[in-house]
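User: Design a sequence. Structure:
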């Protein structure tokens, strides 16, 4: 059996791992690589394998760095099934369509420049239509319901507690060549225990081969209640200054977590009086309705909260919250005087409506930009986290006077201890090989060091891009 790491190798984004066994090919995730524009385009456009040769795909969760290149895979000739949870499938309907729209816009932007130079134009990596076509191949599965996806290969999805519908992937494989059965566990993204709405991430007692994420290797999150307090304080203080809180957030997952936190504050009368809250992202609007459709993926606490403490029984809505879909309505938010909370995408401040809100508010010292998620290198979000005061938005320089508040505790990812504990759970059968993916080199190395030193593992690898391992 062979595993090749075609993405999220020594970096976080672009999750794509290829397993070859018994003459068949299984692709785990098919994510978009997110980085510098030109490099990303090249890497995402050209798949590192023949799409037609893949027999089956398993998708851990709907985030674009895991699902975002599926339409390209299908367009390039992949004909097999894509197994994931039903919530992941439904989230992908909205997310891949949105991503197709972004690809179309991106190609238009690039082509404008190419035309000026008289160079040949490029095509979008995929379109909204390609995204719609890909949905045909999705197959929704429940958690903990084993299913044979190829002869001799059984798939079981376990709740990863990372976002709605997120899964850890267990494959029980009868390897005909070595005549051994192999349990391969792919962690997907491992959740941060204690996150509202989501269940505690699953653990496993046995595995032979593990592919696991390492985003927060070497870093610990502050306790959840500390984050909640900082969140409330930041909103209150900005309100007192008469400023706006601008929150760049992934339309999927993080936005709903933030809305849920605000909803709770509202019900407890802890939200400053009359402060309007806007979720300005058409994708977030669509995705929030998918969240409402999948209560089977919530934890028990939330289910009880909905019944007992939320008067309207809507976790993602309260009277002062407005969801904004139309561009015209988004523009009217700019004219608003006085305090407000504005949640918008993209989460790493690379594109989308958040750029308009930032442009309009970043030079005003009363305002706060609240960072609630991980920011990739080279993104504007990362620059803000690093304290940059001169930032470029739509090609123009802005001097940042607004405060930047970083809330690490909202992370959907396990921290260093969480990752180590996840591995510690393999008690009955310890994996002989652990591959660390989905982390920058320093993070993956920090985790590797702990697994070797604290848990006495020897077979820990940090694969390079396209590196293959025969097992
Ligand atoms: Zn994720
Ligand atoms: Zn991820």
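Assistant: Done.
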């Amino acid at each position: 059996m062979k595993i090749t790491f075609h993405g999220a190798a020594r970096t976080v984004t672009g999750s794509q791992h290829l397993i070859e066994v018994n003459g068949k090919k299984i692709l785990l995730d098919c994510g978009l690589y997110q980085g510098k524009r030109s490099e990303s385009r090249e890497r995402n456009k050209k798949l590192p394998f023949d799409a037609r040769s893949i027999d089956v795909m398993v998708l851990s969760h709907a985030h674009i760095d895991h699902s975002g290149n599926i339409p390209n895979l299908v367009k390039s000739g992949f004909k097999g099934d894509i197994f994931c949870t039903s919530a992941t499938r439904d989230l992908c309907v909205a997310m891949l369509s949105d991503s197709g729209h972004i690809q179309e816009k991106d190609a238009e932007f690039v082509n404008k420049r190419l035309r000026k130079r008289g160079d040949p134009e490029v095509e979008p990596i995929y379109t909204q239509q390609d995204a719609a076509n890909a949905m045909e191949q999705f197959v929704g599965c429940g958690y903990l319901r084993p299913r044979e996806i190829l002869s001799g290969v059984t798939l079981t999805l376990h709740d990863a507690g990372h976002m709605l519908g997120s899964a850890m992937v267990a494959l029980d494989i009868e390897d005909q060549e070595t005549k051994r059965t192999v349990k391969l566990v792919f962690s997907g993204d491992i959740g941060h225990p204690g996150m509202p709405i989501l269940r505690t991430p699953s653990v496993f007692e046995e595995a032979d081969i593990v592919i696991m994420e390492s985003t927060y290797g070497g870093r610990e999150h502050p306790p959840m209640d500390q984050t909640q307090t900082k969140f409330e304080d930041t909103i209150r203080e900005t309100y007192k200054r008469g400023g706006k809180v601008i929150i760049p957030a992934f339309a999927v997952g993080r936005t709903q977590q933030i809305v849920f936190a605000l909803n709770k504050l509202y019900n407890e009368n802890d939200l400053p009086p009359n402060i309007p809250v806007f979720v300005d992202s058409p994708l977030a609007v669509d995705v929030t309705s998918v969240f409402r459709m999948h209560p089977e993926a919530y934890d028990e606490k939330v289910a009880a909260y909905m019944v007992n403490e939320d008067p309207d029984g809507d976790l993602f809505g309260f009277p002062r919250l407005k969801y904004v879909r139309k561009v015209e309505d988004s523009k009217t938010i700019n004219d608003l005087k006085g305090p407000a909370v504005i949640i918008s995408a993209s989460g790493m401040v690379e594109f989308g409506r958040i750029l308009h809100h930032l442009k309009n508010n970043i030079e005003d010292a009363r305002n706060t930009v609240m960072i609630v998620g991980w920011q990739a290198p080279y993104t504007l979000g990362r620059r803000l986290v690093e304290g940059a005061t001169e930032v470029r938005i739509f090609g123009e320089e802005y001097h940042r006077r607004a405060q930047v508040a970083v809330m690490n505790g909202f992370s959907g990812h396990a921290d260093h201890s969480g990752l180590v504990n996840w591995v510690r759970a393999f008690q009955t059968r310890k994996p002989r090989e652990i591959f660390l993916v989905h982390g920058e080199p320093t993070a993956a190395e920090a985790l590797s060091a702990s697994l070797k030193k604290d848990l006495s593992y020897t077979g820990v690898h940090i694969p390079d891009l396209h590196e293959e391992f025969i097992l």
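The pocket of zinc ion (ligand 1) is lined by residues 61, 63, 162-163, 189 (CB under 6 Å). The CA atoms of residues 336 and 351 lie 22 Å apart.
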